[in-house]
Predict the 3D structure of the following.
Amino acid sequence: MEKKIIEIFRDYYSRFEFDSQYVEDLERREIAIWPFNSTTLIRHLSFSNFKDFKQFILKNVPMHVYNSVAKYQNPSIPNMESKSLIEAEVVFDIDIDHVNTSCKLEHDIWICKSCNKTGKGFVAECDNCGSLTIDKKSFVCNNCLDVAKDEVLKLIEDFLFSDFGLSKDDIKILFSGNRGYHVHIINKSFSSLDSRARNMLVDYVKGISARMYLKEMLKKKKFKFKGINSNGFFGRFAECIYDKINNRTYQDWEKFGLSSEKIEQIKKLKDVFLQELKQYDCDYSFLNVLGNYKERFIDECIREISVDIDERVTVDIHRLIRFPNSIHGKTGLKVVPIKYEDIYKFEPFRDALIFLKGEARISFKVKRNFPKIYMNDEEFDLNSVENKDIPLYLALYLYLGGYANIINFSI
Amino acid sequence: MKVDPKLLIKYPFLPFLGEYLKEIYFDFEEIFKGNNLILSESLERVKLIVSGKIPKYYDDPSIEIPIFVTSLYFVSQLGTDTIYRFADYESKRFSKNIQEEKLENLLILAQHLIKSNLEIHVIKRGPYEIFEIKMPLIDYLNLAPFLGGYNWALAFKDIHLGKVYLSKSDFSRLLEESYRQWIILKANELKDYYYPELEKILIEVSKEIEEKRKTYKMSVRSYEGIDPPCMRILINDLKSGKKLSHMGRFALVTYLHSINWSVEDVINLFKSLPDFREDITRYQVEHIFGLRGGRKVYSVPSCLTMKAASLCFPESPGCDNIKHPLQYLVRIKKLKVKSGKENN
C-alpha cells in the first residue's frame, strides 16, 4: 500500500515546480523530511537551489517536508549554535485542535490516560481527575476549518494590521494542510526579534496578561480600565462588552445563566453602562450586576477578542514549519500559500485538494460516527462510503489520517 | 553650532563623542603606555563598580570622557559578567540624569539611542492635555521584555498601527534600558581590540575581580540536570550576570526552594547579580521560604503566570500539556525512562 502512496506523492512532486516565491533564500534554510515508514525526522539538510531540492524530494519522496523559519549562515550544521542564525520569521500557528468548536461534540472523542474516563467534545483537561494527558481522537470537519479561518482573520485584521501596522505585503498565509493555518510575518524588522520579544507578542495575541490582570483586579474590587476610545487590546475588550450589552436579548442573557431580576436590571441600566464604556478610563463596576457570572462574562469577551495560537511555534526561532505546496502526509492535502485578498473565498477541502483524478475503496479501521464532509463542493456521508468507489482525495484523507484502510485503487 | 562637551558626561552616546575624542587627541595607546590619571582612574572605576561601590565622576569633560571610554574598554576585556555590571550601574546613573529633562530633550536623546522616529502625541482629557510618546512597536519589543512585570505587557499599552503610546515615565524607563543595551553593544564592539602592553594589568585586575567573585560564585547545580527551560534560562542569565526582573527572581527562588536548595545556597547564587544586596536578598529569600512574616511558603508560579511575565520558553515534549514548571521534571523523567526502555 505504502509503495502505491509513495508513487502518488512522487507523481505530484514531479509535476510541481518549487520556486523562491514561497520560500525565500532556500540556501539559508534548514530543510527536514519525515520519510514514510520512519519514526524520526531527517534534519539539517540544505540545498543551494530548487533543482537539487526537487531531485532530492523525488528520490526520497517524504511523507512530510519542512523548512526552518530561520535563515542560517550554515543551515546544514547539526549544532544549533554553529548554524549561526541570521534572522527568523515570526510565525503564528492556528490549530483548530486548540479551539473549542461546537462541532467537536459530534466528532471528537477523548480518553483520559490517567483515570480512563472517556467523553465527547473538546477538553483541555480531564473533567474527572484534572489530568492533562489525554488521548484525543479528533476529526476535522468543514466547520472546524471555517472557525480556524475566522481566527486567522481576527489575527490578521485586529492584531497584525490594526495594532502592529503591517500590510498584506508583510505577511504570508498558508493553509497547513490539516487543522489550521500558519501566518508568517515576513517584514524584516520583525525577523530580528528574539524569543523574549516573541513571547511578548504571544502574550498579547492570546490575552494572557490581560486575563490574569482583570481577574486579579476583580478580586481586589478595582474596576478602572480603559474604555472603547483606547487603542489595542483593551479598546477591543470594551467594544466587545459594549456589543454584548447592547445586542443581547432577554433570551441570550437567560441562556447565559442570569436570573430575570438581573436581566431586568441590565435592561434598565443599559444606557448608563454603554455611556460609561465610551470613556477613555472606564469604570467597569457595572459588571457587578452580573454577580457570580462576572468572571465568566469577562472570560468570554477575552476569548472572543484574542487568538488561540500555539505559543511554541511563535517563540521558537529554530522552528521547522511545513514547506509551501508540499503534501501533508496525514491528510494528502496541499500546504497552500494564500494571498490575503483570497482568504475569504479559500475553501481548504476544495482548494487544497491535490489528487482529483482516480478513485479508491476503503474500509474503516474502527466504527465511529463521522460528520458529513464537503469536499470539492460535494457532500459525503462518511458513514456510508465503505466498500464503494470514492474519490482518491477522500480515500487518502481517511487512510492517511488513520481512520481507514484502502482496499484497492482505480487510478 | 558648538555643542557643550559637558553633555557627553551625562550622555556619552551622543554623536559628537567621536569628534570630541579627536579634539582632545584621545589615544588608547598613549593612555596605555603607563602611569597617568586616566589609566589609574579608569581601573579604579571598574573595580569599584564590580564590587558594588560608587566611583568618582569628574566635571571636566577632558578628564571624564577619556576615563569613561577607557573604563568601557577595560570592561570589554573582563568578560560578560563585568560588562553587565558596568552597564547596569551606568544605566542607573543615566536614569538619575534624565529625571529632570524635559520631554523634548528626552526625545532628542531617544533619537540617538533608539534611532527611530518618535513623536509626541497630545490627548485631551477634559480640561487637561496629556502628552504621550509614540514609539515604534519594534523598538518597544526590543526593550520592554528586559524590564519584566505585568505592566509592560502590550495589552496594557495603547497600541495602534505599529506605534505604542507611552507616558513620560514609561518612556524614561525604556530609555534607561536602551542606554544599558548601548553600553553592552559598545563594550562588545571593543572586545576585539588588543593592546599587548595591557596584558599584565588586565591579568591583575582579572584576578582581583575573580577573587571578589569567588566569595559569591558557586557551581550552579540543577535538579538532576533537567531544569524546566524557564528556570534554566533564569539560571543562565544569573550565571552571566544579567539582571533579572522581580518576577524572574521570585520564580527562581520558589523553584530552588522546591528542589531543596538552602537559603544560604540561594543567597550565594544571587551574589552574582549586579545590584546584589545581601540584607535585602536574605530578607526576601527567607520570606519566600516561609521563614519570615506570615510564614507562608510561596509555591512556584504556574506556567500561565510565567507566560504573563514573558518568562516562559516552552520546549517540546517536556512542556507539552503542562500547567506548572514542576510538571516538566516529572514529564522529562518519564520520557527518559521510556526512551531508556526503548533503547534496550
